[in-house]
Specification:
five-stranded mixed β-sheet; globular; Alpha-Beta Plaits; binds 2 iron/2 sulfur/6 carbonyl/1 water inorganic cluster; binds iron/sulfur cluster; Rossmann fold; 570 residues; alpha/beta
Length: 570
């Protein structure tokens, strides 16, 4: 243990504790900007400086550890002045257009400048910044980058993609795409984790809200919307709503006020995905001698982009099943268009996703199988929908819950847990068991694939055969798993991969709580929703059963193949 004094408090903490942590233990908050625990502890912004008696210079608290007998001042006049100057220097190279910034009100730099009483930027520099693309789903505003390095670290250490790097020198130092010139030409998976870890507005998703407002105003268009599983756990966060109040039914009410004609649930098509992907897996198992294993889930477009870009030799092992987002779009513009008796082109199909890779996925040229343009016309992130609600002056606090529409608004508990790491695997195993044995298992029989660890393994008995599965979340873990498979160190039958840590609950399109990840809390909500759902099995979803009876025939039928499966090489 180490004894020291912080702001007059005598304390004792374990060796190697950082000054930042030691202060926090005594209830003293040292402000930070670039710091992310275990990920970015480099003192780049120099906001966390403190004074240590006996030294002229100040020290950063996030990456210096305490020593026996230290006397530390975290809030002396000298500390406050230097901190203020450091933030002014950051602001001097920052495009301070706060009122029109997507992160206004949720920006750590804005917050700290306010906290430090900075109302003027005395050393403002005019720096010519490169212009980024406006069309790619991930947008970088160079003029807003504060060189905190968080995006570099998260992309490299957590996601294993290494897209960003520091470029140039002196006042022109900035963060840009490593090796290639354009982000569009890089192997960026579009997971969006660099956005959710950016403390300012230097990274954001392409804003597609205007396209949706236009469709909502068009009397010729029937605008349908699907709500992804993980969106229901998070949409209320930025609106100040408690999770138990911010239900999917209250979101449905807000979406009706926005003018959407039919409010549906991606959980419906998650159940459909299980029927197709589960059947495909059992079919592949029948040909174990000739098929390559493991089969990988294909519902996360960040993962699909990653594997195609970084480990293309595994592309054939992806399930051919489309993601629930795309299955929903194809069904909306075929089966549902038929129910309505309208041409598919009349339907404008919107999805609300916790994800930015979904914007890329819906625009893949082969994802238009229903014949009415793109099967999903626009994919919005959770954050964009919150902005639409705000800009339309809808007050969710005053809304009563409303039902989703039928028949595509019905989803099972197995569908809802898609939004959590392990959820797709668990849902698939619940139905695979039924398809093999003709009997339902205990719905919680496969709970060992739950939990936040980045790489989980389990074995289950499926009618006498042992099925070995793995579940990974975070692309860095996915890369490690693929390397181990390549080297023959591990072998599995079925692997679920989600690009974002914790699965879609921690998706790159979710509300941002700078430096604090909400994935685990949101995952708990999803499992709670599964527990209380009357339906726990995808194969018991009455709307899915009816869709097969009236339209698709059976899982893996010709029509199902045409609408619900894809060629990942296209
Ligand atoms: Fe997901 Fe999905 S679970 S990828 O995370 O599979 O984005 O929530 O909508 O499509 O269902 C995201 C979430 C989805 C899809 C579903 C899957
Ligand atoms: Fe890296 Fe993901 Fe950001 Fe792309 S979206 S640069 S892969 S963190």
């Amino acid at each position: 243990m180490v004894k020291l004094m912080i702001d007059g408090n005598q304390i004792e903490v374990p060796e190697n504790t950082t000054i930042l942590e030691a202060a926090a233990r005594t209830g003293i908050r040292i402000p930070t900007l670039c710091f992310l625990k275990d990920l970015n502890e480099i003192g780049a912004c120099r906001v966390c400086v403190v004074e240590i008696e006996g030294y002229d210079k100040l020290f950063t608290a996030c990456n210096n550890v305490v020593k026996e007998g230290m006397v530390i001042h975290t809030n002396s006049r000298k500390v406050r002045n230097v901190r203020k100057t450091n933030v002014e220097l950051i602001l001097s190279q920052h495009n301070v257009s706060c009122a029109t910034c997507v992160r206004s009100g949720n920006c750590s730099l804005q917050q700290i400048a306010g906290d430090l009483n900075i109302y003027d930027v005395p050393m403002m520099k005019q720096i010519p910044f490169p212009k980024g693309s406006k069309d790619f789903p991930l947008i970088r505003s160079y003029s807003k980058c504060i060189k905190c390095m968080r995006c570099i670290q998260v992309c490299d250490k957590i996601q294993g993609c290494g897209i960003w790097d520091v470029v140039n020198t002196g006042s022109r130092t900035t963060v840009d795409v490593a090796k290639v010139l354009r982000l569009e030409d890089s192997e960026c998976a579009l997971c969006g984790q660099c956005i959710t870890h950016c403390p300012v507005g230097a990274l954001r998703e392409r804003d597609d809200t205007e396209k949706v407002f236009e469709a909502l105003e068009d009397p010729e268009k029937i605008v349908v919307v699907q709500i992804a599983p993980a969106v229901r756990t998070a949409w209320g966060e930025e609106l100040g709503l408690k999770p138990e109040f911010a239900t999917v039914k209250r979101l449905a009410a807000a979406l009706r006020r926005l003018g959407f004609d039919y409010i549906f649930d991606t959980n419906f098509s998650a159940d459909l995905t299980i029927m197709e992907e589960g059947s495909e897996f059992l079919e592949r198992l029948k040909h174990k001698d000739t098929e390559k294993f493991p089969m990988f889930t294909s519902c996360c477009p960040g993962w699909v982009r990653y594997v195609k870009g970084h480990y293309p030799e595994f592309t054939d092992q992806l399930s051919t099943a489309k993601s629930p987002q795309q299955m929903f779009g194809a069904v909306a513009k075929s089966y549902y268009a038929k129910i309505l008796g309208v041409d598919p082109s009349k339907i404008f199909s919107v999805s609300i996703m916790p994800c930015i890779a979904k914007k890329h996925e819906c625009a893949i040229p082969v994802m238009n199988d229903a014949g009415g343009g793109q099967d999903v016309d626009v994919a919005l992130t959770t954050r964009e929908v919150v902005r639409m609600i705000r800009s339309s002056t809808i007050v969710p606090m005053s809304l009563k819950e409303e039902e989703l529409d039928m028949p595509l608004g019905v989803g099972s508990g197995a569908g809802v847990i898609f939004g959590a790491t392990g959820g797709v695997m668990e849902a698939a195993l619940r139905s695979a068991y039924y398809l093999v044995t003709g009997q339902n298992p205990d719905p919680d029989a496969f709970r060992s694939v739950r939990g936040m660890e980045g790489w989980k393994e389990a074995e289950f008995d499926l009618a006498g055969s042992t099925i070995k599965v793995a579940v990974v979340s975070g692309l860095g873990n996915a890369g490690r798993l693929l390397k181990s498979l390549r080297q023959g160190k591990v072998s599995y039958d079925f692997v679920e991969v989600m690009a974002c840590p914790g699965g879609c609950a921690g998706g790159g399109g979710q509300p941002i709580h700078d430096g604090y990840e909400m994935a685990e809390e949101r995952v708990d909500i999803l499992y709670g929703l599964d527990r209380v759902n009357n339906l726990r099995f995808s194969h018991e979803n009455p709307s899915v059963i009816k869709c097969y009876e009236d339209y698709l025939g059976a899982p893996l039928s010709e029509k199902a193949h045409h609408l619900l499966h894809t060629d990942h090489h296209a």
